[in-house]
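User: Show me a protein chain along with its predicted structure.
Assistant: Here is one chain, sequence first, then structure tokens.
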Amino acid sequence: MKALTYHGPGRRVWGDVPHAVIHEPEDAVVRVDAVTICGTDLHILKGDVPEVAFGRTLGHEAVGTVVAVGDGVRSIAVGDRVLVSCISSCGRCRYCRLGAYGQCTGGGGWILGHLVDGTQAEYVRTPFADNSLHKLPDEVTDESALLLADILPTSFEVGVRNGQVAPGDTLLVVGAGPIGLAAVMTAQLYSPGRIVVVDPAASRREAAKRVGADIVLSAAEATPDALRRLAGDGLGVDVAIEAVGLPETFELCAAAVRPGGHVANVGVHGRPAVLHLEDLWIRNVTITTGLVDTRTTPMLLEMLAAGRLHTEGLVTHRFGLDEMQEAYDVFGEADSNAALKVALFRS
């Protein structure tokens, strides 16, 4: 079968690899019908995630059809149309029993495209199929479901929920890529008073407006003083969501938040950021980090099926599965291509 494999910083290959097969009783093999590329995949290709072995098939988001199941699988059957979650869950360890599936110590967590072969392939082996695959209702399209594999639950859980967005809040989202835009979309479930989005790209600022941002600013306009003044009392924003993964964007969020406010870091960081405790120690600021647990995926899927969650506009470019290299080129130069999320489909 064909797959996109990692061969060191800056090197990727779309080529033949051994076919995905059942290894453990709780495995399933899924034929990939739709797949996407994540910003985390770009971080891997930059060398920011050294745990990824040479030859690893990348990708951790997909929609597909189950073609084989292990003897221990109970709730998933051959022929099921499923969402492949970015997080795998053993369901038995301490963290899984608490619903913190991203921290699974029983062989799960973020493993697809990281510690085991991932979804950017014609077929993928999915560990812990009963806990890590979600059956899809007929009314949900492959493209819409694909956005629930990672970006929607990540933005909602690690950004909106960790940031404790509340009615009437002034919310700052730094970064209007797919994660930032998904944060804008899901934050509206909590009725913030004002949503401010910062991004250097005009196309992404326009996208932020389309999905519900009230104010959009370029990087040059978004000084800490200017952001603090956007709150009614001038003390700063209630919640700042960092959705880029750069030292300067994290530091901007920390500088813009009010005393007693929350900074929710979602971005994947490849370099250290300065934590200005000399300023923050007295201001009662809460800073959270996190890997998505995907425990809200079933709820988000129900909302999507019911027409209460709309993901239109997040996918801007579509390709065939065998156009993987071209899709990476487009997504890797997202600003110049006005690309948000790319989706690839089986022919």
